[in-house]
């Protein structure tokens, strides 16, 4: 369990000739809650797409445990992808299926369990995200926050080893966002999963992050990696400090840092 | 989660005393395991005459995944609904934590839906009501279109001319290749079908009359309309439907811009302007297709064919064809735009809207065509 879960090596992301980020190097350990942060448009979501197999890197590699993700055969890659769960920004639930059918879909396809047991597991997953009793609702009939949690239940359907979250708190009120953060932490603790979160919500970053990478849109590369709290306390990089303090404190006013920490 | 044993998950039902039973879980509870159905344990519980305490215990539990807490949750739900106290402290900490999390938010009262049995009569009633609602929607849409057109006539309609030219480009020139192909082939088919009969009388020259009249009065307009309903009507429904899903139509409304003027009018105008032109083009192509067959296979010269066509088809026939194409254009645009504007807010609703648009417009077209043909026949035009 000591080897890193995900290793990103010399990763360069580009759309055609347009480079988004270059030379990314960082590792994500087992049981980490890893935050991908940075200003708007710096390529956070693009990095996520590279990690979950939706977009091929222009250069460099992504390793899952020791396995080279992008140089593996299609079959092996699908195998790795089946071990990860992704919560998309707006839930990405299939709108023509009920919540139960949404969650049962991967279970029915890949687990080989009977329909009665699948129904039990669906109820359990919905209960985990606080949606007990909403099995027969269509995604359009529930609120955005509930859609997000249902999306999480679907992402967890196959007990993935790694859960990816794309802006989990976007569009949620602070209380719901806090509940979702708590849920993420308790899922990590109980399932032992590794969690990767794309976000720029400072409250979440400090509340749940154990490790992070900071992407910079101007220099088009990463500025730092490490625990967000440690970055705030130790970093000399004005840009990171500015980001982590919402631009409110200057580097010479460390007294304010403590107030933001939860 | 260490693998203690490789045995599949087992459930032992142990009676401790009159009021207490223990449910003991052993073995592996992960994806490969074969597990007894939860119903059996619940049946055992039922049979054991209402114990007041249930102890949940783990004994030599192997590896487990979601199947274990899902299973336990069923038992706990049963206990709760039967007022049985349960004690989960004999389970591993991870399982306890997950169960606690799953039970942290109690089920909201009234949230669960029970399946309702549908009676045949109820179904019929629902279908009728839906039909009435559709009819009402159609009338409302026509009304709104008329109002928007009146605004346009008064020169106050808000839409961008660029949009309209884009729609014209899409509904006109971009449709030429497919219209060419289909009309040419239909002309060809008409000629062949007629030729077999007419050649028996040695009257091949009248193929020109048949193809000319058939194409100009009927097939040109009809085939163009069918093509355009599949091509443009469906596109209108899908475009407007997707805009509805993305709240773009709401955005227009809150800006104070009428979506009927901004989105529907340019599309309708474009189609109404382009259809007669396409129809005329299709007529020409159809006659050409007929000529190809007749000249190459039935011993009629091109000049003869041309003269015969000119003699057979007069301006009246052309105007009827063009009039039809105008009517068809209105129907296609109405069906397409209406279905798009009334689209629901999901991906499948967009698909339904596009399907309904095509089906509706083809039905409208054929009905309208029959009515017009009947009227023309009565009036002797």
Write a short abstract of this structure:
The complex is a heterodimer of chains A (about 260) and B (about 375). Chain A is an alpha/beta fold.
What can you see in these coordinates?
The complex is a heterodimer of chains A (262) and B (381). By secondary structure, chain A is an alpha/beta fold. Chain A has a domain at 91-159. In chain A, 37% of the residues lie in helices and 23% in strands. Chain A contains ten helices and ten strands. Chain A has helices at 44-51, 74-82, 99-110, 115-128, 144-155, 174-191, 202-208, 228-234, 238-244, 257-260; strands spanning 6-15, 18-28, 33-38, 59-64, 67-68, 84-87, 162-166, 194-198, 211-216, 221-225. Chain A has a six-stranded mixed sheet with strand order 6-7-8-3-9-10, with helices on both faces. A four-stranded antiparallel sheet of chain A has the order 2-1-4-5, covered by helices on one side. In chain A, helix 3 (99-110) crosses helix 4 (115-128) and helix 4 (115-128) packs across helix 5 (144-155). The longest helix of chain A is centred in the last third of the chain and has 18 residues, at 174-191. Residues 251-262 of chain A have low confidence and may be disordered. Chain B has 381 residues and is of the alpha/beta class. Chain B folds into two domains: 10-102, 2-Layer Sandwich (Transcription Regulator spoIIAA); 132-379, no CATH class. Helices cover 69% and strands 9% of the residues of chain B. Chain B is built from twelve helices and four strands. Chain B has helices at 38-47, 67-81, 93-102, 120-153, 161-171, 176-200, 207-245, 248-254, 259-297, 302-312, 315-341, 347-379; strands at residues 10-17, 20-29, 53-64, 85-90. A four-stranded mixed sheet of chain B has the order 1-2-3-4, with helices on one face. In chain B, strand 1 and strand 2 form a beta hairpin. Classes of the chains: A alpha/beta (262), B alpha/beta (381). Chain A binds chain B through residues 94-96, 111-114, 116-117, 120-121, 123-125, 127-128, 130-140, 156, 159, 183, 186-187, 189-192, and chain B through 1, 31, 35, 37-39, 65-67, 69-71, 73-74, 94, 97-98, 101-108, 111-113, 115, 344-349.
């Amino acid at each position: 369990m000591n080897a890193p879960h995900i290793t990103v090596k010399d990763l360069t992301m580009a759309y055609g000739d347009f480079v988004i980020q270059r030379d990314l190097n960082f590792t994500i350990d087992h049981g980490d809650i890893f935050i991908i942060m940075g200003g708007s448009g710096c390529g956070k979501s693009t990095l996520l797409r590279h990690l979950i197999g939706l977009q091929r890197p222009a250069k460099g590699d992504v390793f899952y445990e020791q396995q080279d993700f992008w140089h593996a055969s299609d079959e092996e890659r699908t195998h790795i992808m089946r071990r990860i769960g992704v919560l998309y920004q707006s839930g990405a639930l299939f709108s023509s299926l009920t919540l139960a059918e949404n969650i049962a879909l991967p279970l029915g396809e890949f687990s080989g369990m009977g329909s009665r047991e699948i129904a039990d597991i669906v109820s359990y997953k919905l209960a985990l995200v606080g949606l007990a009793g909403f099995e027969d609702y269509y995604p359009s009939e529930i609120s955005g926050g509930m859609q997000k949690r249902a999306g999480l239940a679907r992402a967890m359907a196959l007990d993935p080893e790694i859960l990816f979250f794309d802006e989990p708190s976007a569009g949620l009120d602070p209380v719901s966002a806090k509940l979702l953060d708590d849920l993420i932490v308790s899922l990590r603790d109980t399932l032992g999963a590794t969690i990767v979160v794309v976000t720029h919500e400072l409250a979440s970053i400090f509340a749940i992050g154990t490790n992070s990478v900071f992407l910079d849109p101007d220099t088009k590369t990463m500025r730092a990696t490490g625990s967000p709290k440690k970055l705030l306390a130790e970093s000399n990089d004005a840009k990171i400090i500015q980001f982590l303090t919402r631009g409110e404190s200057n580097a010479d006013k460390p007294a304010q840092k403590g107030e933001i920490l939860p | 989660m260490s693998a203690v044993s490789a045995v599949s998950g087992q459930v032992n039902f142990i009676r401790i005393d009159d009021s207490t039973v223990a449910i003991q879980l052993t073995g592996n509870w992960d994806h490969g395991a074969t597990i007894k159905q939860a119903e059996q344990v619940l049946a055992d519980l039922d049979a054991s005459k209402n114990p007041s305490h249930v102890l949940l215990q783990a004994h030599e539990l192997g590896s487990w995944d979601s199947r274990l807490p899902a299973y336990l949750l069923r038992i706990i739900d049963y206990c709760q609904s039967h007022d049985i106290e349960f004690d989960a402290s004999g389970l591993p900490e991870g399982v306890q934590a997950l169960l606690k999390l799953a039970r942290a938010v109690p089920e909201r009262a009234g949230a669960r839906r029970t399946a309702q049995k549908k009676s045949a009569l109820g179904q019929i009633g629902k279908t009728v009501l839906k039909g009435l609602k559709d009819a009402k929607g159609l009338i409302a849409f026509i009304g709104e279109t008329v109002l928007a057109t009146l605004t346009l006539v008064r020169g106050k309609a808000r839409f961008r001319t660029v949009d309209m030219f884009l729609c014209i480009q899409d509904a006109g020139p971009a449709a030429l290749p497919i219209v060419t192909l289909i009309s040419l082939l239909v002309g060809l088919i008409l000629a062949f079908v007629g030729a077999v009969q007419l050649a028996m009388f040695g009257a091949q020259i009248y193929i020109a009359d048949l193809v000319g009249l058939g194409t100009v009065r009927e097939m040109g307009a009809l085939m163009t309309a069918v093509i355009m309903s599949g091509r443009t009507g469906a596109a209108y429904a899908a475009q407007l439907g997707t805009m509805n899903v993305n709240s773009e139509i709401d955005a227009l409304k809150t800006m104070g811009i009428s979506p009927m003027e901004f989105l529907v009018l340019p599309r309708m105008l474009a189609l109404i302007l382009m259809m007669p032109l396409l129809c005329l083009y299709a007529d020409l192509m159809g006659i050409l297709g007929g000529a190809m067959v007749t000249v190459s296979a039935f011993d009629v010269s091109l000049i003869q064919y041309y003269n015969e066509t000119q003699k057979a088809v007069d301006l009246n026939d052309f105007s009827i064809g063009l009039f039809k194409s105008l009517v068809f254009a209105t129907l296609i645009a109405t069906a397409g735009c209406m279905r798009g504007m009334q689209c629901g807010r999901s991906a499948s609703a967009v698909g339904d809207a596009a399907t309904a648009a095509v089906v509706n417009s083809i039905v409208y077209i054929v009905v309208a065509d029959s009515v017009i043909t009947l009227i023309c026949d009565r009036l002797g035009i």
